[in-house]
Amino acid sequence: MERFYSLVFVAGVGCFAVAFLLSMIFPWMSLYSYHGMDYRTIEQLAAKPSAEFVELAEKFPASFEASYGQVTPASYAVALQRGRDVYVGQACWHCHSQYVRVVSNESERWGPPSNAQEYQNALNQPHLWGTRRVGPDLAREGGRRTNDWHIAHFLNPKSVSPTSVMPQYTIYFDDKGVPNADGMALIAYIQWLGTVNAGIPVGERSTP
Q: Which of 42, 133, 155, 205 has its CA 20 to 30 A from that of 163?
């Protein structure tokens, strides 16, 4: 019996070691061991505010100024980070992946396949690759639709996608449909995904 317990203990330690290797060491290697790949900070990613971010400021000046002040690289960086935090906090990654694979004609549905370099930045770590696609992949979402479309979608997904099972996110808007700080941040983040600002080469930016 004592020998059996010893074997179980050794097996347990071995399983822990394998789990540690697969869940920590390999991901660490994937993040920091790519030769020749530059890591981009949030400041670098936000150096040029997007046209969609500028449009939010112009269309909702009072709400924007109360939330982010003026359009600057610094305010854009704050909005992007806040948007990602909201995205993660609402578990959007549970239904939407952010990784276009090279199989099953995925590029025809969502755009060019993802590459390792585009994940070497502050807004893509930890990775939100995901495996479920209850909703479409969002790796190339930025710029595909207007801010107005996203506002309508967050307020009532079925209004723009009748078969959607996504819940309404009215908490990010006032009674008139004006986005609050979190709403603007979420839109800014979604509109950033897969853009040149996100590190996607200009020639690979187009989507179907």
A: 205
